[in-house]
Amino acid sequence: MDLKKIYGHIYAHKMSKPSEEQIRYALMLSKGMKLGLALLIFTFFLYVTGILSAHIPKNVLPDLWHLPVAEYLKAADIEGGWNWVFLINKGDFLNFVGIAFLSGITILCFIGIIPIFLRKKDTIYAIIAFVEVLVLVFAASGILKTGGH
Fold this sequence. Notes:
Order of helices and strands: HHHHHH
Strand content: under 5%
Structural class: mainly alpha
Number of strands: 0
Largest sheet: none
Shape: elongated
Number of helices: 6
């Protein structure tokens, strides 16, 4: 008697149906990715067309590309880390908004599923998602000063 043949359709049905939190996470990720991509295209358009002036003129960029990061930052008069935010009014730095947004989508997705876990009384999963948010926020903030930051 092959139980897989007999009960296979039941098992397959249970495994193929995504949970509420999976659906919310996926929808938030999909919408966020599309919004982030649109933001990247729009801000790049503003930069390339010159509608917003650049901090580093386009004709100077090739002369700086070969430099190590520390020398590049000094030559371009840029501070590292999140200091790009203070140059957001420049076309070449406005592009970073889309990149930062796309990088933060995962955080928003985790925040979005925490209420579902709490409603379902899946406290452990809610705590794990909350801790994941904290880890990602601390990692993105640069406060920890590890790795390449």
